[in-house]
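Design a sequence for this backbone.
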């Protein structure tokens, strides 16, 4: 999980103890992410999916999160993983450094438009042309609980779909077209979508939207060199 600086306190305290539940889809992984791909798990939290990818044979995976508490937890629970705390942009990697990126239940933790655009835009910089972004997030829900809290907090945050939880978290559910537009603006083209139900950390269920998007541009251009970490 990740969030902008204004909301980071939750993820350094209460949020850092949560058990995240958004699952990978093995069929999508197999279809779009080769085992030798260099993968960024952005908003990795405590490395749950980073570890799952490593267990599936993806050995070039790096997790990054803004929360020091979540990264510390991840290093305790998964000492063999490459997990890094980094707040702000740019991340310390060259353009096109990664073949693929994961963005799992991250935008739901980022209520502001500008912060969301910054995240997806940075992934557009880091994923090579022809590489993929595997996004999974929560669209606007149609049940009574969510409709009520969307309406209750719309005035405070100026966006329908943003809401607070009793333990102090601020979250956002999105119209699907909002997620697609963010990807297009960052240079990605949607190539596959899937919907389904997932468990939430608070014990409920929610509908989710999974999107595979490909970084536009010539794959040959992104493959001419073996990228290395950015200097400085």
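Sequence:
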């Amino acid at each position: 999980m990740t969030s902008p600086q204004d909301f980071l306190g939750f993820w350094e305290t209460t949020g850092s103890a949560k058990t995240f539940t958004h699952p990978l889809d093995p069929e999508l992984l197999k279809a779009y992410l080769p085992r030798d791909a260099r993968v960024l798990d952005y908003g990795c939290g405590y490395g749950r999916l980073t570890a799952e990818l490593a267990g599936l044979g993806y050995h070039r995976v790096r997790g990054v999160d803004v929360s020091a508490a979540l990264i510390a937890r991840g290093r305790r629970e998964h000492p063999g993983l490459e997990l890094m705390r980094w707040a702000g942009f740019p991340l310390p990697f060259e353009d096109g450094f990664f073949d693929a990126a994961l963005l799992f239940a991250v935008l739901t933790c980022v209520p502001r438009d500008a912060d969301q655009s910054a995240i997806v835009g940075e992934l557009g910089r880091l994923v090579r042309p022809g590489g993929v972004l595997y996004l999974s997030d929560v669209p606007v829900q149609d049940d009574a609980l969510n409709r009520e809290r969307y309406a209750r907090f719309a005035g405070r945050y100026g966006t329908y779909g943003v809401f607070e939880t009793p333990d102090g978290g601020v979250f956002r559910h999105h119209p699907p077209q909002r997620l697609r537009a963010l990807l297009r603006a960052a240079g990605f083209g949607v190539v596959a979508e899937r919907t389904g139900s997932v468990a939430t950390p608070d014990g409920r269920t929610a509908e989710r939207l999974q999107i595979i998007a490909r970084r536009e541009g010539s794959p040959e251009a992104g493959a001419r060199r073996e990228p290395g970490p950015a200097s400085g």
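The radius of gyration is 17 Å.
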